[in-house]
Fold:
Amino acid sequence: QITLKESGPTLVKPTQTLTLTCTFSGFSLTTSGVGVGWIRQPPGKALEWLALIYWDDDKRYSPSLKSRLTITKDTSKNQVVLTMSNMDPVDTATFYCAQKDYYASGSFNYWGQGTLVTVSS
Amino acid sequence: DIVMTQSPDSLAVSLGERATIHCKSSQTVLYTSNNKNYLAWYQQKPGQPPKLLIYWASTRESGVPDRFSGSESGTDFTLTISSLQAEDVAIYYCQQYYNIPYTFGQGTKLEIK
Structure:
């Protein structure tokens, strides 16, 4: 079955760079149409899409955060890494990674459990 | 950006009754080449990640009970739960995946009356 799991620091200081890893199983990021995205959710608030990387290394970013985000993949390790620079307390959120199949549902079929990142000095 | 506006923000429905949640997109999410609306509905229970319920506006994800249905009329989308069960208490989000940035509605909190 398909699983995804986010890992990374639970606490970062303002101005630091956050690095999160999504480790997945049950699918390959070399399969045509498949992508992995990142979505965040501040406590008690709505979901916000951040970035997406496809099987062919096509990368998409939220324009409002593009200057701070980098998404990469390591297909040999079944991992996708998101970095977010210049972290601020308003970036405190649960970060989710999720699988997207462009040719199937087109939307985010499978989600990790999420990891809460707190930004505080 | 495409703005997704859900209504109501919260909703209380009696067990066994119908629950209806609305979502309006600020512009079309319909690809005329394949006649599909790039609109999904998710359910999120406390402490859990979102769960995909509906995609292409009206296609139920595998394993989702058939009391959940989605419909569309232009840029107006509706999620209907035909007979509310206790386990349906959650926050529901619509999301468009037509354009970057993908955007979500603000969420609708569904409770039992």
